[in-house]
Write a structure and sequence with these properties.
Distance between the termini: 12 Å
Number of helices: 2
Strand order of the largest sheet: 1-4-5-6-7-8-9-10-11-12-13-15
Strand content: over 45%
Structural class: mainly beta
Helix content: under 10%
Number of strands: 15
Order of helices and strands: HEEEEEEEEEEEHEEEE
Shape: globular
């Protein structure tokens, strides 16, 4: 139930880092698999696309998360992801994003439920030469298992002294017992953060194929209504690589 789930991310880090990262995920999964209230996923992604920009420069990566869900409706967990921004020329650059989260789900009727959560974004080093850890708050409304609306606010995104607001609408539909279609539409108010002329829409559509009860393959098209900037090599502010329309692949092992 990760409230900050995003589309796929890069293996641009050292071999030792990759081994440690994978080992930590496997340890977490292995020590908790016997506990029914725990859930986890380990994914290989072709890119880490987040609200119209890449956190991994268009490269494949590893991602994982582990969470606990209580009968009372609250949940807590942590996600880990490799990252690689366009700041590799800096000696101090982040390779890992850690996302602790805490939330609460409240049923409203038999069909509707609401959800409140908070997620932290913590980096193991600097992002574009700045400390960039920050917190984001989420409020969601779900209709059955096929329609969700969510709004989120980051009061100090990436510690750049700007507030961002994001709106999302997501739809899911089972085509077959093992195949699901899903699509999402978002609007991101982040022009000050990304140094853009306007806020913008982004969207995705794709199909998930559940190969087994624990393994799934997702193929997705993503796009954004945004004029591309020219990347500036020595830019001092937050300056990630903007999305170019592309297909994303992900393979996920979960329990």
């Amino acid at each position: 139930m990760n409230p900050s789930a995003s589309l796929p991310a890069c293996l641009d880090c050292s071999h030792d880092f990759s081994v440690r990262y994978l080992g930590l995920i496997c340890l977490l999964l292995g020590t908790s698999s016997a506990i029914a209230e725990w859930h986890g996923e380990l994914s290989v992604l072709s890119d880490y696309i987040y609200r119209g920009y890449s956190k991994n420069r268009g490269n494949p990566l590893l991602q994982g998360h582990l969470d606990y869900e209580a009968d009372a409706g609250w949940y807590a967990g942590m996600g880990l992801s490799q990252v690689s921004f366009d700041d590799r020329h800096d000696a101090d650059h982040a390779d890992l994003e850690i996302k602790p989260y805490l939330g609460w789900t409240l049923p409203l009727t038999s069909d509707w439920k609401t959800e409140l959560s908070v997620t932290g974004y913590i980096y193991n080093d600097k992002v574009f030469a700045h400390d960039s850890d920050y917190v984001e708050f989420y409020a969601s409304l779900h209709y059955r298992d096929w329609l969700s609306a969510r709004v989120s606010v980051a009061p100090n995104a990436y510690q750049r002294d700007v507030t961002t607001v994001n709106y999302e609408l997501n739809y899911r539909h089972d085509i077959l017992d093992t195949v699901q279609f899903s699509a999402g539409l978002g609007y991101y108010q982040a022009k000050k953060l990304l140094e853009l002329e306007d806020d913008y829409f982004y969207w995705n559509a794709g199909v998930s194929w559940f190969l087994t009860s624990y393994l799934s393959l997702d193929v997705r098209y993503v796009d954004v209504n945004l004029d591309q900037r020219n990347y500036q090599e020595n830019h001092d502010e937050f300056y990630p690589r903007l999305l170019e329309n592309k297909y994303l692949l992900s393979l996920t092992l979960g329990f």
